[in-house]
Design goal:
The complex is a heterotrimer. Chain A is mainly alpha-helical. Chain A has a domain of about 170 residues: MetI-like (MetI-like fold), CATH 1.10.3720. Chain A contains 14 helices and no strands. By secondary structure, chain B is mainly alpha-helical. In chain B, strands 1-2 form a two-stranded antiparallel ribbon. Chain C is an alpha/beta fold. Chain C has a four-stranded mixed beta sheet. In chain C, strands 8-11-5-12 form a four-stranded mixed beta sheet. A two-stranded parallel sheet of chain C has the order 4-16. In chain C, α20 crosses α22. Chains in contact: A-B, A-C, B-C. At the A-B interface, α1, α4, α5, α6 and α7 of A face α1, α2, α4, α5 and α6 of B.
């Protein structure tokens, strides 16, 4: 039985230090977030003046209205959610599978394949060769361009593999003795134990998918039905910037209720970040020790 | 007396070849599982490398890749003869090293400290807040940084002058000596929470028995953190370290571009900014590709060295 | 076994979903519906930031009914023009109508644009849109005309009321305080600012800033190009051209440049120039201007429209600015205003992907007819404007309110802002301007009391009268800056231009910020750096060559 130990003086000191640090940390971190929130609720022209801190000075919902007042919004949201869900599920599963293969210590081609993958993180052909490749594979104007190209990320694979390396060898060995094949071992034994790292990778991938707009612009801008939420928001943001004298006829002079890039950007940030912030608590519960779940003790 | 083990096999070649086939058969599933991945990665990651040929040509987008005029390593010569390029490499490396060091210490430190917070509610709250800055775009963040450091209205200057540490406000962006520090601190602030997520996940895989054992040995909270938690995530730390060392040449673009100005441009421009200015903006894709190849070569060399080092130190390594 | 089944079935479901989604939205854009009676649709891309109009925009559909065509506009997002065009060329597919911006030359080189010279005769509005000389300017060396420059045309008479370009600006409040003096030189200008600042150290509770210079990134041209204006030259942008010898000279080394920056150095050390001005971002600049405490700046008007709007919103109209055309020497004639520049380096082209070239050209042609011009800018009769018994167009207060409302404009007005249009001028009836804001009645409705006071004090009818009269014709080489967009990466002048930019960005702030007694030595260092690190001669030679070429080809006339 684990008895309870009285908190020693050094423990209390330690705890208080941590407490103070965390409070400072929260203030320094929270302030810019609250500031962005305030700017997002502030009138565009007024926010240009600066001087807004924690509360809006001239409250308005205009920025959010501009964001949501978009004919493509529902379709864009649908595409964004689809690519996030499908992309994340596929990516996590496949990356984990590859990580498993490369975590087997006696795998013949482990060294070569690992290098093969690590290399992909540091070399690249550039935007134009990749574009030409996508075109060649008929992935332009195609939903699959959101899923297929990024299926295996070497970085995520290595993170998962590192985690798998930390699992005791006895697990796999005893399963093999029982006659299980590698694929079964992967699915039934290893995968369930990797919940924390899978949740982490899922978070990374989901955020990337959710925030992605460059691929929508590059490959699918000719297909309005394949637009993503972020791309639509990007377009709205671009439209509010002033780039030169030629388009000034368009710029409504003496406009009363203009949105400016500053306030619009703030609103877009909040709208984009909110779903992720809501998603996170669901993933948090996976951050528990996989070992205690499995009940395996060395 | 030592025993000599002689190789009594008359035909060693055939034996090893047979061994190979036998082993491959044993690992049939693993090999089958790998093949689709290899094909996939080859198509999506390696075929675009054909584009590297652009670096050896005077590339014009209109014509096909094989229809261009070749110019050998001229682009590389132009790159290395430009005094700005050397400066730019220096800037990139220095800022990367600062970011790397600060980032690692802070992310790991934060993960360790957060793990020690005992109030569940506080822990979750702080963690959620910590990664929010990751979602702010650099434009917003640099705007805030510029405001905070402004000589006239910024809070930092007001505090410093108020406490009589300085007599006149400092324009932090007019002097080259502050720039790298500003970039480093801004980077840390934005990414420390997000970066700590991996470490927090790794911490959960530490065997709880180790904590019990340490407790029995009389270790307090701080000692446990230092001697159980920290070593427990050692492999994660090493792997991330190696991978990030490879990324040193990618110090970034947005932060330096947004915070830089004419007065500090000698220290603010990174390789990526240089490529944008002298490559893409001038439609000089060849130069841009040449710089890209240069970066890749540096990266691969660095991780190879780092990996070797990790191997000899007995730590987790990439390959 | 159950778990594997679960995973496999999830994978199958995922694949199914993916294939469903792949099904939707695979086809690329329609170029144009073919059969008559239906409204044709064309796709257009402009390599600049802009607003997409919703499909149900009222006037877009009204115009579509009238001319039988709709043009769906797409704008640049998230990339530079050159990057975007580069990718388009690599992919080989283009929208029907395209303005490549900086990347236009790349499009021409790639053979993406259709030659237009044979087709123009069929479309009178397009043909008459430009003068024969202008059409010649657009003709490339291979004899073809690939695009139509859509800006800078005036129809019948110049009716501009605002100065959109560069000038030295000064607050209305300052002019009023000094009882509306005549300011023509830099010395007078700064003199007035100094006096006002000394008498009014604060504006609305915050310290007064005498002078602000925008230096952020690509917007920094107002830091470096005043010397050309101060020496009495127009906005050739990249050099000053000597009329008699027809040579181009960069304006960074002329004596006026030294005088001007010495003056700025003085003012900086006197505390007149904001000490943050060289490190402030565009947002910070706008923010400072919006507080109403910046007495003057040198800038192009469109850069601070947002700040003006903010001041108006705060009812601080007297803190907005009027333009001044300053020189160093009072005997030199200022040329801040010119006839709108004709930039032959870019424009609207029809791409080779367009399946109905004649339809596209006809649509553009129709958009230039007076009736459709009215629809584009004034709107529908009675709904958007009224006509009085003399035939003059005017707007009611409500209609004016609508025109100022961003949302309303987005849903109702369709100006086709990047297709051929007129910067100023009259409709064919000779009494109504094409653009509502230039109509006298509408213009006067925008004036506040402080505006009227200032205009009356000087006897001006509109803001352009603060500056020089527009010359009848521009020089044949004007604007020389359009030559630079045709340069390619392997030409030494291109590299020289980029290098000069970098050097100026670094040295000009330095030169201004050093102590007065260090100015001369620092200035000499700057000049030496400029000459040694950038191939200035190659730059000037290339421009001189272009000047001579333009004079030879286009002689007199614009």
């Amino acid at each position: 039985m684990v008895g309870f130990r009285r908190r020693s003086k050094s423990d209390i000191f330690f705890d208080s230090l941590i407490g103070i640090f965390m409070v400072i940390f929260v203030i320094v971190t929270l302030y810019p977030i609250l500031n962005t929130l305030a700017v997002s609720f502030n009138d565009g022209i007024d926010s240009v003046r600066g001087g807004i801190y924690l509360l809006p000075r001239m409250f308005t919902l205009k920025n959010y209205q501009t964001v949501f007042h978009n004919q493509n919004l529902i379709q864009a949201a649908f595409i964004s959610v689809s690519r996030t869900v499908i992309g994340t599920a596929l990516q996590v599963f496949l990356t984990a599978m590859l990580a498993y293969v490369l975590s087997r210590k006696d795998y013949l081609f482990k060294k070569q394949l690992s290098f093969f993958y690590v290399l992909t993180m540091y070399v690249g052909g550039g935007m134009i060769p990749v574009y030409v490749l996508m075109k060649y594979l008929h992935l332009t104007n195609n939903f699959l361009v959101y899923i297929l190209p990024g299926l295996i990320s070497a970085f995520n694979m290595i993170v998962i593999r590192t985690f798998m390396n930390g699992l005791p060898d006895s697990l796999v060995e005893s399963a093999k003795i029982d006659g299980a094949g590698d694929f079964r071992i992967f699915i039934q034994i290893i995968l369930p134990l990797c919940k924390p790292v899978l949740a982490t990778v899922a978070l990374f991938v989901a955020v990337d998918q959710w925030n992605a707009w460059f691929d929508a612009m590059l490959y699918n801008s000719a297909s309005p039905s394949l637009t993503t939420l972020q791309y639509e928001l990007m377009k709205v943001l671009s439209a509010s910037t002033q780039q030169g004298s030629s388009g000034t006829i368009d710029m409504v002079k003496n406009a009363g209720n203009m949105v400016t890039p500053k306030s619009l950007r703030a609103a877009i940030t909040i709208v984009t970040a909110l779903p992720i912030v809501c998603l996170y608590p669901f993933l948090q519960r996976y951050f528990v020790s996989g070992l205690t779940i499995g009940g395996v003790k060395e | 007396m030592e025993l000599e083990v002689k190789n009594i096999n008359p035909n060693p070649e055939i034996k090893t070849k047979n061994n190979l086939m036998k082993n491959m058969k044993k690992q049939k599933t693993l090999i089958l599982m790998s093949i689709p991945f290899v094909i996939y990665t080859f198509i999506f990651n390696y075929t675009p490398l054909v584009g590297w040929l652009m670096a050896f040509q005077k590339f014009k987008p209109a014509k096909s890749l094989f229809d261009q005029t070749w110019c050998g390593i001229d682009q590389f010569k132009i790159l290395f003869s430009d005094p700005n390029f050397i400066k730019v490499i220096r800037n990139t490396l220095c800022m990367s090293l600062i970011n790397l060091t600060l980032g690692f210490i802070c992310s790991i430190g934060f993960a360790l400290l957060l793990n020690e917070v005992r109030l569940m509610f506080a822990k979750k709250f702080v963690q959620t807040i910590s990664y929010l800055p990751h979602f702010l775009s650099w434009i917003i963040v640099t705007g805030i940084v510029a405001d905070v450091l402004s000589p006239e209205t910024g809070i930092i200057n007001q505090i410093l002058v108020g406490l009589h540490i300085i007599s006149q406000p400092i324009n932090f962006f007019a002097d080259t000596k502050y720039f790298w520090g500003i970039v480093g601190l801004t980077n840390v602030w934005k990414e420390v929470g997000w970066g700590s997520i991996i470490y927090l996940a790794a911490i959960t895989s530490i065997n709880p028995d180790l904590y019990e054992a340490a407790e029995i040995d009389g270790a307090g909270r701080f000692k446990k953190m230092l001697h159980v938690t920290l070593p427990g995530i050692k492999s994660t730390i090493f792997i991330l370290l190696i991978m990030n060392i490879g990324n040193i040449v990618n110090a970034g673009f947005e932060v330096q571009y947004l915070l830089g100005n004419g007065l500090v441009q000698d220290v603010s421009q990174t390789i990526d900014i240089f490529v944008l200015k002298y490559g893409i903006s001038l439609n000089n894709y060849s130069l841009a590709t040449a710089a890209g190849i240069f970066k890749s070569v540096i990266s691969v060399t660095l991780i190879y060295i780092a990996n070797r080092f990790a191997k000899s130190a007995g730590e987790e390594r990439l390959f | 076994m159950r778990k594997s089944k679960l995973i496999v079935s999830m994978l199958l479901a995922g694949t199914l979903a993916v294939s469903l989604l792949t099904g939707c939205g695979g086809s690329s854009q329609e170029t144009s519906a073919s059969s008559d009676g239906k409204i044709k649709e064309f796709s257009a891309f402009f390599a600049t930031a802009g607003k997409e109009l919703p499909d149900n925009n009222r006037l877009k559909n009204v115009i579509a009914e009238k001319i039988g065509a709709k043009i769906n506009e797409q704008w640049l997002t998230g990339q530079t023009a050159k990057e975007r065009i580069g990718v388009m060329i690599a992919g080989g597919e283009y929208p029907d109508i395209i303005d490549g911006g900086d990347g236009t030359q790349a499009l021409v080189d790639a053979g993406a644009l259709i030659p237009l010279e044979d087709k123009i005769d069929k479309y009178p509005n397009i043909k008459n849109f430009l003068t024969p000389t202008q059409w010649e300017k657009l003709r490339k060396e291979d004899g073809h005309i690939y695009f139509i420059q859509q800006f800078g045309q005036i129809r019948n008479k110049d009716t501009q009321v605002q100065h959109n370009d560069e000038a030295f600006w000064i607050q209305k409040a300052v002019l009023e305080w000094a009882n509306y003096p005549k300011i023509t030189t830099i010395d007078q200008y700064f003199d007035l600012i100094e006096k006002y600042k000394a008498a009014n150290p604060q504006v609305n509770g915050q310290p007064t800033i005498g002078f602000e210079v925008l230096s952020d990134d690509w917007r920094y041209f107002c830091l470096e190009n005043p010397p050309q204006f101060l020496a009495g030259y127009p906005n050739d942008g990249k050099a000053i051209i000597d009329k008699s010898t027809l040579t181009a000279k960069n304006y960074n080394t002329i004596p006026e440049a030294q005088k001007y920056f010495k003056k700025l150095n003085d003012e900086y050390n006197k505390g007149i120039i904001d000490q943050e001005t060289f490190t402030a971002s565009y947002d910070q600049y706008t923010s400072k201007l919006s507080t109403g405490r910046v007495l003057g700046m040198v800038d192009q008007h469109w850069e601070f429209l947002t700040a003006e709007n903010s001041l108006k919103q705060q009812h601080l109209d007297e803190r907005t600015w009027v333009p001044l055309g300053l020189t160093i020497d009072p005997n030199v004639k200022a040329q801040y205003r010119a006839k709108p520049a004709f930039n032959a380096g870019g424009g609207i082209g029809i791409s080779k992907s367009c399946k109905d070239v004649d339809g596209a050209l006809k649509a553009i042609n129709d958009l230039l007819s007076p009736d459709v011009l009215t629809l584009r800018y004034w709107g529908e009769k009675d709904k958007d404007y009224k006509v009085d018994d003399k035939g003059l167009f005017y707007r009611t207060d409500e209609q004016r309110e609508n025109a100022r409302n961003q949302d309303w404009v987005n849903a109702n007005m369709c100006m086709y802002t990047y297709l051929p249009q007129y910067t100023a001028g009259y409709l064919d009836d000779g009494i109504n301007t094409i653009l509502p804001e230039q109509q006298q009645t509408e213009f006067e409705a925008t004036l506040t009391d402080s505006d009227k006071k200032v205009l009356n004090a000087y006897g001006f009818k509109n803001w352009t009268e603060f500056l020089n009269q527009v010359p009848e014709e521009n020089e044949p080489w004007y604007p020389i800056y359009s030559a630079c967009s045709t340069w390619s990466a392997d030409q030494p002048e291109q590299m020289a231009m980029q290098k000069m930019d970098d050097i100026k960005k670094q040295w000009l702030p330095k030169v201004i910020m050093v102590k007065p007694n260090e100015f001369d030595s620092t200035w000499n260092q700057y000049q030496t750096t400029l000459i040694t690190q950038a191939d200035v001669k190659a730059y000037e030679d290339a421009l001189t060559k272009e000047v001579k070429r333009r004079v030879e080809k286009f002689g007199k006339g614009n």
